[in-house]
């Protein structure tokens, strides 16, 4: 029997909302609350963001080459890495079809944007579609999927430590592209991976070829300008981009103050899975990376263009009620999210092998290791 969301007793008798309870509304109720114009895609407006970001990227390159000193290079790396991340988000919109209603335009722009930052467009697009179609499902989700305890316990101790110790989790994306997640097989470059259907294999081959072409061009530029120059202009910003991608995508599915459910079997459905996602406030970066922090409505309605997500979210709150969790307000720089990330990595390690509603559990040995390590570091400093 379905039960509506209710308050349950938490620590010290405090009442905590039971987010695992089936919601008393349907996805159609949420959609009806969202203004119809929020679903309309304007390709000219979408392209204007592409031109804006590309202009900023080339301006940053010109400024870095003009000043060319070790005071300005670190500023360039952070700024350019952030802009690479912004390009990724626009390519992500192409993959969802929220960039425009023109499929050919989406494919062309998506390939240009993603290939330029070494992301295989179709391979990633299809894996991301799988993530959205199965969000919140323990076995079927594709992005930052929780490890069942049996798989977690099979990992070597050093692997567990590395997996949950910064900075490695912030640089996991290239490993995911090549090997996917623990417990899953295949690669986003391999058209014969079980992630892809036979009709999708040709698309994956095309994207892999585009990735290879850009890799060749970057190697040629290394030959022309020297590896150190390319390291400064491209490689370091690319690492910053990967850190943005891994950090943001992790925080959209982990680290809320109250542990959120993951589902299996009959307890899972598209709406309940989508409601386990979390919105985040990134301060001054919200506009720069195209309001990707408005993640709940994006997950439920990925066809909504990014420039309508804030309005759509505000309209949906009346229906969502307690199932929507207001993000903690950020200052200009979202330093508060670093603490959230660290806390989650220390506490959210695996889920039970059984049960249709599961919550992250803590490996006490690993938690104590991190606690001891932090105490030793504090005493040293």
UniProtKB/TrEMBL annotation:
<protein>
    <recommendedName>
        <fullName>Omega-3 fatty acid desaturase</fullName>
    </recommendedName>
</protein>
<feature type="transmembrane region" description="Helical">
    <location>
        <begin position="73"/>
        <end position="90"/>
    </location>
</feature>
<feature type="transmembrane region" description="Helical">
    <location>
        <begin position="49"/>
        <end position="67"/>
    </location>
</feature>
<keyword id="KW-1133">Transmembrane helix</keyword>
<keyword id="KW-0443">Lipid metabolism</keyword>
<dbReference type="InterPro" id="IPR021863">
    <property type="entry name" value="FAS_N"/>
</dbReference>
<keyword id="KW-0276">Fatty acid metabolism</keyword>
<dbReference type="GO" id="GO:0006633">
    <property type="term" value="P:fatty acid biosynthetic process"/>
</dbReference>
<dbReference type="GO" id="GO:0016717">
    <property type="term" value="F:oxidoreductase activity, acting on paired donors, with oxidation of a pair of donors resulting in the reduction of molecular oxygen to two molecules of water"/>
</dbReference>
<dbReference type="Pfam" id="PF00487">
    <property type="entry name" value="FA_desaturase"/>
</dbReference>
<keyword id="KW-0812">Transmembrane</keyword>
<dbReference type="InterPro" id="IPR012171">
    <property type="entry name" value="Fatty_acid_desaturase"/>
</dbReference>
<feature type="transmembrane region" description="Helical">
    <location>
        <begin position="203"/>
        <end position="223"/>
    </location>
</feature>
<keyword id="KW-0560">Oxidoreductase</keyword>
<dbReference type="Pfam" id="PF11960">
    <property type="entry name" value="DUF3474"/>
</dbReference>
<keyword id="KW-0444">Lipid biosynthesis</keyword>
<dbReference type="GO" id="GO:0016020">
    <property type="term" value="C:membrane"/>
</dbReference>
<feature type="domain" description="Fatty acid desaturase N-terminal">
    <location>
        <begin position="7"/>
        <end position="62"/>
    </location>
</feature>
<feature type="transmembrane region" description="Helical">
    <location>
        <begin position="161"/>
        <end position="179"/>
    </location>
</feature>
<dbReference type="InterPro" id="IPR005804">
    <property type="entry name" value="FA_desaturase_dom"/>
</dbReference>
<comment type="similarity">
    <text>Belongs to the fatty acid desaturase type 1 family.</text>
</comment>
<feature type="domain" description="Fatty acid desaturase">
    <location>
        <begin position="72"/>
        <end position="324"/>
    </location>
</feature>
<keyword id="KW-0275">Fatty acid biosynthesis</keyword>
<keyword id="KW-0472">Membrane</keyword>
<comment type="pathway">
    <text>Lipid metabolism; polyunsaturated fatty acid biosynthesis.</text>
</comment>
